[in-house]
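hey can u check if this looks right to u? its 154 residues, i copy pasted from the old doc so theres a chance i mangled smth
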Amino acid sequence: MKNKLIFSDQGQTIVESALSIGLLLTMTLGLIEGALMLTTYHYLSYAARLGSRYAMVRGSQCTGFTTACPAVAGDVTTYVQSIPFIGVDPTKLTVNTTWGPAPPTGSVCATPACNDPGDQVTVTVTYPLSGFTVPLIPAFSGNMHSSSTMVIAQ
């Protein structure tokens, strides 16, 4: 009877199940966190594109808008932070807007603001990532950013 208990494998299934379920849950949570990061990046890309479009149509010669004509960096920041998106805190968004000369290298801006038709506007949106919490993987934090450049139309 004593030898029969020593060589028994009755608890083997429980140990294998615990290890398998732990690994499966870690992979599932990692997949969910990765999808949330991808969603956040998609939003940042979308927000940068909308911000650069907002500034692109509000150059030095814009007409037809009651406000922000021509647009300045604060106007673009306010606009980008007003875009609602689930899971992203707009108060944590950092929006950097820069105007530059026309695309050909060596060109010079006609006005100091570089917001004439044909010049470029670049909007960079940055968002802090934190809370990447997957069991057995070290915590991750950092900044995610995206930028969009468009040629000013008016």
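Residues 7-151 form one domain.
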